[in-house]
């Protein structure tokens, strides 16, 4: 039986934004200012800063922090969903999930490459993740307890990621903007598969439906928390906005996400776990109950359900792979030696 | 179509094994590569199983004795259950993908249009899998003392299982694999013990655990759509 393919309201216009950003990027390249233009002039003219350009130290270090955190999130994010590859309920679902988790490794790769253009090495970035010096998105510190979590992550977590990341396609740093265009296109596919998978469960047996609702109940607030602390408490925001790295505030993006999800939940026939959720005619937006930011801070600081497990997994994979990386380096060195002799 | 089912089961069980590597590989590039090979194996399995019936019924509702995969495919990717060893995995992939390449090449030349089409697609993928295993066999064989020791030990442990894997194509297979081992400075293990039984449904103890995990969710919801 052909499974129904419901539309994902709101996602199409976001993908349209990605395409516009791509066109703007090309246009900006065509009317590049001369090489001597100052950093401020490039930013003011909505041009892209490229690796060769001079830039303030804080711009460089802020971008490294942000891109690295994004890359680390992709890498750690492979774990919660990877958890269900072996048990996927059909071969088609298994193939989709494998491809999705593989995409995440790919995103991690080109984000690390974007960070490397700012003068930091992959090794330093890996060490910063393993040592806990740099963070990853707290969303991945929650467990995937049922198959429906795979769908809920696709719909809500990837959906929130897209809302966060689409504006980054217009970020002032060229390599990051270009990486984000590709990432967003793939994330859009991830969101659709999640939504479609959840839709099938919501239309399925009573057990499947309960599984889907339980997953939405557990992932809704962690997804809202992905947009970060409320604007009043956000430490990096103001400078980041001035430098056109960040284009919208945390609360603006969170609202956009809520507005997108409510009609989607209605199509699914699932309930978002917020009794305070209602349309506000005056604001033209849905009112909603804020996430518990104290919980977010506890998870950020390391005390979420899976922080220790995720880090131990990553550390173990890195340590157990050390002899392989050494062997590859030793072999390459021997080969290079042969060429020069 | 029983040969296609056997090849399909090889690919399905290999995909299930390889996907254990996801998020655990020694480098990010290798994480992408191993997931990609797992995906190719899964794709081949779906095509091949579909020639024998419904892919999900075959994958999820058969018990161990009904599977026709060779024993090599179901072995853990390390010396013991739960282990994940990179040298072991590359030696396993070298033996498996070289045999798959030959089987798929024969399939591509078959008179049966469907089988020939599947063969044409899977030959391209197996060529890449074998190349990947070949390159890593060279790196591990010629890298450090530790990597050489590990890959030789893995090869010694896995070699007996290649007997069943290569039934009917042994000479062509040896012609493919022996030069790679020589190039990597590895010793070709002697042919002694020759375990078999997978093709007739007599498997190792390992298959039961693999199937229990793979089939658990599907079987918990009989008749459900996903």
From TrEMBL, chain A:
GO annotations of cellular component type: cytosol
Superkingdom as given in the UniProt entry: Bacteria
Listed InterPro entries: Aromatic_CoA_ox/epox, Ferritin-like, Ferritin-like_SF, PaaA, PaaA_PaaC
An example Gene Ontology biological process: phenylacetate catabolic process
Stored Gene3D superfamilies: 1.20.1260.10
One Pfam family linked to the record: PaaA_PaaC
Sample GO molecular function, one term: phenylacetyl-CoA 1,2-epoxidase activity
PANTHER family referenced in this protein's UniProt entry, alphabetically: 1,2-PHENYLACETYL-COA EPOXIDASE, SUBUNIT A (PTHR30458:SF2), PHENYLACETIC ACID DEGRADATION PROTEIN PAA (PTHR30458)
Name of this chain's protein: Phenylacetate-CoA oxygenase subunit PaaA
Source species: Catellatospora bangladeshensis
From TrEMBL, chain B:
Gene Ontology BP annotations: phenylacetate catabolic process
Listed Gene3D superfamilies: 1.20.1260.10
InterPro entries for the chain: Aromatic_CoA_ox/epox, Ferritin-like, Ferritin-like_SF, PaaA_PaaC, PaaC
GO cellular-component term (any): cytosol
Name of the protein in question: Phenylacetic acid degradation protein
Organism: Catellatospora bangladeshensis
């Amino acid at each position: 039986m052909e499974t129904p393919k419901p539309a994902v309201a709101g996602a199409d216009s976001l993908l349209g934004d990605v395409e516009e950003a791509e066109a703007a990027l090309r246009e900006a390249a065509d009317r590049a200012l001369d090489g001597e233009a100052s950093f401020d002039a490039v930013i003011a003219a909505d041009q892209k800063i490229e690796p060769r350009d001079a830039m303030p130290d804080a711009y460089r270090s802020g971008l490294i922090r942000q891109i690295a955190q994004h890359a680390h999130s992709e890498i750690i994010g492979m774990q919660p969903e990877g958890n269900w590859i072996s048990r996927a309920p059909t071969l088609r679902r298994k193939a989709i999930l494998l491809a999705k988790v593989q995409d995440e490794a790919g995103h991690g790769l080109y984000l690390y490459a974007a960070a490397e253009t700012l003068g930091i090495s992959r090794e330093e970035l890996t060490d910063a993740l393993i040592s806990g010096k740099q963070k990853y998105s707290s969303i991945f510190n929650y467990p995937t307890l049922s198959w429906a979590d795979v769908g809920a992550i696709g719909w809500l977590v990837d959906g929130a990621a897209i809302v966060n990341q689409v504006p980054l396609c217009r970020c002032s740093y060229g390599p990051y903007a270009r990486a984000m265009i590709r990432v967003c296109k793939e994330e859009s596919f991830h969101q659709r598969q999640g939504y479609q998978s959840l839709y099938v469960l919501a239309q399925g047996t009573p057990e499947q439906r309960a599984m889907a609702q339980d997953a939405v109940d557990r992932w809704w607030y962690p997804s809202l928390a992905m947009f970060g602390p409320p604007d009043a408490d956000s430490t990096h925001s103001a400078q980041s906005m001035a430098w056109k790295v960040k284009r919208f505030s945390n609360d603006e993006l969170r609202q956009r996400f809520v507005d997108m999800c409510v009609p989607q939940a209605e199509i699914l026939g699932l309930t978002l776990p917020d009794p305070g959720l209602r349309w506000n005619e005056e604001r033209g937006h849905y009112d909603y109950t804020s996430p518990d930011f104290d919980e977010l801070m506890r998870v950020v600081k390391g005390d979420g359900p899976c922080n220790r497990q995720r880090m131990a997994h990553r550390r173990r994979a890195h340590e157990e792979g050390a002899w392989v990386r050494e062997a590859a380096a030793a072999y390459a060195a021997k080969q290079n030696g042969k060429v020069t002799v | 179509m029983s040969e296609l089912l056997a090849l399909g089961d090889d690919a399905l069980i290999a995909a299930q094994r390889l996907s254990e590597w996801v998020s655990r590989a020694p480098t990010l590039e290798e994480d992408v590569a191993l997931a990609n090979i797992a995906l190719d194996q899964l794709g081949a399995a779906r095509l091949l199983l579909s020639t024998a019936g419904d892919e999900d019924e075959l994958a999820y509702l058969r018990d161990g004795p009904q599977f026709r995969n060779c024993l090599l495919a179901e072995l853990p990717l390390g010396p013991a259950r739960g282990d994940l060893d990179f040298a072991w995995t590359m030696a396993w992939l070298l033996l498996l993908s070289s045999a798959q390449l030959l089987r798929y090449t024969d399939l591509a030349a078959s008179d049966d249009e469907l089988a020939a089409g599947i063969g044409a697609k899977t030959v391209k993928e197996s060529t890449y899998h074998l190349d990947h295993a070949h390159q890593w066999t060279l790196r591990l064989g010629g890298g450090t003392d530790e990597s050489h020791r590990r890959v030789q030990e893995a090869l010694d442990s896995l070699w007996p299982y290649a007997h069943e894997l290569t039934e009917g194509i042994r000479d062509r297979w040896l012609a493919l694999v022996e030069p790679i081992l020589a190039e990597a400075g590895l010793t070709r293990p002697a042919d002694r013990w020759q375990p078999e039984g997978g093709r007739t449904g007599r498997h190792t103890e390992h298959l039961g655990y693999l199937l229990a995990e793979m089939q658990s969710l599907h079987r918990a919801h009989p008749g459900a759509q996903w």
